[in-house]
Design goal:
single chain; 741 residues; 3-stranded antiparallel β-sheet; 24 helices; 67% helix; membrane; mitochondrion outer membrane; mitochondrion
Length: 741
């Protein structure tokens, strides 16, 4: 993982996203185009065979449409079941039709046993029953829903703009507001829980209450508010603990968000690109839904024999026009020829299930392709900002349009390849969910366990593929290589910077998630007070609703999607800058010959992360990791610093050798030489006592003395010669301007 790519040498001409590139993954591009042509063919076939009136209008027992203009049932738009309890029969699962007579009527019966009981009730019961006897009003909350979604869009846009100019302050304000909003939710749940104390029926449990269509019934019991309070308290504690443990890394993540804000400030058109993605996804979803409706309504009317007694012709196919004159009515007098379901025996009807499967698969493929196109476009624009040495002068005039044009012209095949891999996993997950639905009534625990394990594994696989695809698209936008090469290079680049991924990328994603949570919380609280009629200033304008939780959930989900669309631009910007940041470190060293493309603020982030890596939990790293870090640090060091360090190491080596050579010479001159003189004198005295006649000859004595002194002189000469050599070597290293030793 510590081995860098071979093509990552310094390139003085590299200025960001490569313009001179070629088409990638051409085979996948051709396959995607053929699949789209087949998708259009399936849609045309379904539109020619299908009849959407079967979905729009109710159908009576003879397969006739209720309320259809131009027929005798034009003034009868409603469907009446004679015995609706028969719809609970298992025959519904076999024939997909309720086995009871169904008639088209002008209006529903205005008299009912429940209404009679209500009239006989007391005055206190009138308020309860009156809620269920009101006339329906269509699109009552439409204006309020639109207003809530517009408010969510405005709040998201204001938050993004403030992040551009006040990133540091807004992040801290966001953190504090998230804690306060969740804290207010806990307080509100406690107040509702305390106010229901002693109320009749408030102590009923949710299990005893069962499933109710009116959600407001659950809000009248204490256990509901207690559960909400516990859930919010757990979320609050988790967020606070995460903020405490990540307090040092939050500062670094905030600095990265500031850099992303500067990038978005220079590429302001990126904030509006999610609108194009939303429009393309709307087209894909609409085409899929219409095709699915036409496919499901392209069957023919099938009539079958229904009877209450034993009959040999039961559930056989019949024709209503000739049924009364057939033998079936003679053998089974109580038998009826009723409409059962839509089907057919033609070739088209046999492969109809395959067409539906193909429709679902192409829906996933096209939706993932649109998402991938947005990611490549945004990453290419932000990479143009990063690799501009003089910002903003070197940034292209229209980075979004330039990046979009490169993606569609050269990398349609790569985007289709990545989307295809993800779509296959998603289709497998859909099939597993279908099997799980079929096995709910079975008692095979082993099969359920294996199915649950497979669902978990494919869920993890889908998340991993999304992560790899996202980073692979960034590399495609920068270098213009095929999908597999880009995915491999992105993966190993992230593995070489795994600590930085944890410190910078994921902490920043957590802060952006808190921003989305804040917007959803603000809009959700406002919609709750508005639709429940608790705001006195707008109490008259608020609609009177029985199920006010439905528009609240609609506004909350819509506000989350809107906030996610805006914050996805920030998330893509952060991921792109982070990957370019890691590439910049491996390409350049910060010297004048190989300068960094990152801004000084981003370089400061690098210093902080490097410090945290060195002080990572105070744990001593293995020798192999230390050596790898030293090699990596040496590669990131500027060139002039490396030269100074080499000179210093060479000087220290020479001085160390000089000391080692001087150490054995010094003691020989002082102590050992005196000791040798004393021993020689003793030997001479012994020798004089044994041979007295030799004392008269002084020549040997003088020669011996000169021989003894000669080694000391030789040592001094050698020492001076060594010092002269060392001085010459130091002169060569330090140059002529170096100080003389």
């Amino acid at each position: 993982l510590y081995v860098k790519r071979k093509d990552l040498n310094f390139d003085p001409n590299f200025k960001g996203p490569i313009h001179n590139r070629g088409c990638t993954d051409i085979l996948c591009c051709i396959l995607f185009i053929l699949a789209l042509l087949g998708y259009f063919a399936v849609g045309i076939l379904a539109w020619s065979q299908g009849d959407p009136r079967k979905v729009i209008y109710p159908t009576d027992s003879r397969g006739q449409f209720c309320g259809q203009s131009g027929t005798n049932l034009e003034k009868k738009p409603l469907l009446f079941y004679f015995n609706i309890l028969k719809c609970a029969s298992p025959l519904v699962l076999l024939e997909f039709q309720c086995p009871t007579t169904q008639l088209c009527v002008e209006s529903c019966p205005d008299r009912h046993l429940t209404l009679v009981k209500a009239k006989l009730g007391t005055k206190e019961d009138h308020d309860y029953y009156r809620r269920y006897c009101k006339e329906g009003v269509d699109f009552l909350c439409l204006s309020s829903l639109c207003s809530g979604l517009v408010i969510a869009m405005v709040v998201s846009l204001i938050f993004i703009v403030l992040l551009r100019f006040l990133a540091g302050i807004m992040v801290w304000v966001m953190i504090v507001l998230v804690i306060l909003v969740i804290g207010y939710g806990i307080f509100h749940c406690y107040m509702e829980f305390a106010s229901l104390k002693g109320e009749p029926g408030a102590d009923v449990t949710i299990r005893d209450l069962g499933i109710q269509t009116d959600f407001s019934v659950y809000l009248q019991i204490r256990q509901t508010w207690l559960a909400f309070m516990i859930i919010l308290a757990i979320v609050e504690v988790i967020i606070i603990l995460l903020l405490i443990f990540l307090r040092k890394r939050l500062l670094i993540a905030i600095a990265l968000i500031k850099e992303a804000s500067r990038a978005i400030g220079h590429v302001m058109s990126s904030l509006f690109y999610p609108l194009l993605t939303f429009a393309l996804l709307s087209v894909v979803i609409t085409y899929w839904a219409i095709t699915a409706v036409f496919l499901s309504t392209s069957n023919e009317q099938v009539y079958k024999v229904f009877n209450n007694s034993d009959c040999p012709y039961s559930r056989d196919t019949c024709d209503p026009a000739t049924f009364n004159s057939s033998n079936v009515s003679a053998v089974c007098p109580d038998a009826e020829c009723l409409f059962a379901f839509y089907g057919g025996e033609t070739v088209y009807h046999r492969y109809l299930i395959l067409f539906q499967f193909y429709n679902v698969f192409l829906f996933f493929w096209c939706a993932n392709f649109v998402t991938a196109l947005g990611q490549v476009t945004l990453s290419g624009a932000f990479a143009s900002y990063y690799w501009a040495y003089k910002k903003p002068d070197d940034i292209p005039a229209y980075p979004i349009f330039s990046s979009l044009g490169r993606a569609l012209r050269y990398h349609t095949g790569s985007l289709a390849f990545g989307s295809l891999i993800l779509s296959l996993v998603q289709v497998i997950r859909v099939l597993l969910e279908y099997l799980d639905h079929k096995l709910k009534g079975a008692n095979n625990k082993c099969a359920k366990f294996m199915l649950s394990c497979m669902k978990c594994c494919f869920w993890c696989l889908e998340k991993c593929i999304k992560f790899l695809n996202r980073n692979a698209y960034i590399m495609i936008a920068i270098y213009g290589k095929n999908f597999c090469t880009s995915a491999r290079e992105a993966f190993f680049l992230l593995m070489r910077n795994i600590i930085r991924v944890a410190v910078l990328d994921k902490v920043t994603d957590f802060l952006l998630f808190l921003g989305k949570l804040l917007i959803v919380g603000i809009v959700g609280i406002f919609s709750f007070f508005f639709f429940s009629g608790r705001i006195r200033a707008v109490e008259d304008a608020a609609p009177s609703l029985n199920y006010y939780w439905v528009p609240i959930l609609t506004v909350v989900v819509g506000s989350y999607l809107i906030a996610h669309g805006f914050f996805s631009v920030y998330a893509m910007c952060v991921d792109t800058l982070f990957l370019c940041f890691c590439e910049d470190l491996e390409r350049n060293d910060g010297s004048t010959e190989r300068p960094y493309f990152m801004s000084p603020e981003l370089h400061e982030i690098l210093s902080k992360v490097k410090k945290q890596e060195d002080e990572h939990d105070g744990v001593e790293q293995p020798d192999a990791v230390k050596q790898a870090d030293e090699v990596k640090l040496q590669e990131e060091m500027p060139l002039h610093q490396q030269e100074d360090r080499d000179v210093q190491l060479k000087q220290e080596t020479l001085l160390k050798q000089d000391n080692e050579e001087q150490e054995p010479l010094q003691p020989k001159t002082d102590k050992e030489e005196v000791k040798e003189e004393m021993e020689k004198k003793q030997e001479e005295e012994v020798h004089q006592n044994e041979v007295p006649e030799q004392n008269e000859k002084p020549e040997p004595e003088v020669e011996n003395t000169s021989d003894e002194v000669k080694p000391a002189a030789d040592v001094e000469a050698v020492k001076e010669e060594i010092n002269e050599k060392k001085k010459d070597e130091l002169k060569e290293i330090n140059g002529p301007s170096a100080p003389q030793e």
